Amino acid sequence: MNGQLEQIWRKRFHRGPMDHLTQATLCAGKGLLDSADQGGSRQITIIAEERWAQTEAVFNRTLDPIVRRANLLVSGINLTNSGNRILNVGPCQVYLLGETRPCERMDEALKGLKNALDLEWGGGVYGKVLIGGEINIGDKVFWDQHELHHKSLQSD
Predict the structure, then answer these.
(1) CA distances in angstroms from 22 to 42, 53, 58, listed in the order given
(2) What is the tens place of the pLDDT at every residue in 75-121?
(3) What's the distance, CA 13 to chain centroid?
């Protein structure tokens, strides 16, 4: 089953504003080009639109997902328990390492958001960019069907 890339955001600097983009470049081993978070294991963060809708239900209102401060919003893909899987985003591949745990920054954006995101992988996932390239809103998003043979990816 294919999903879709719905939104892209870039962080200008640490704790800085998020910019909404219609296209961006993912760089292998680094993350989103020109974003404040580069390298390491948390190169890219992804949230699911369907899970975000559950967060909105907690607040009984529509919330702009930019407050979550993730890089990508996808639809049609369940990110729950997706650590150690490869997600294809357009021509790129992202090796998902695990759940992004919400921090106090969420409550700075909206009181109670940290707790609302703490349930069922609500904070989304983080990972490393394996194959980079240009991504665009509307790109297909789907799980890679091949086994991961690169044990070195799990360390960092």
Answers:
(1) 22, 21, 28
(2) 999 999 999 999 999 999 999 999 988 887 787 888 888 888 888 88
(3) 17
- Where helices occur in 23-143 by DSSP H, the ranges are 49-59, 104-109, 113-117
The size of the chain, in residues, is 156
**If you write DSSP's letter for every residue of 82-102 in order, what string do you get?**
-TTEEEEETTEEEEEEEE---
* Helices and strands per DSSP (H, E), number in the chain: 3, 11
Global pTM value: 0.89
Model pLDDT for residues 13-41, shown as the tens digit of each residue? 887 789 999 999 999 999 999 998 778 88
Dihedrals phi, psi of 31, to nearest 5 degrees = 125, -150
Q: Delineate the domains of the chain, giving CATH numbers in brackets.
A: 3-145 (2.40.33.20)
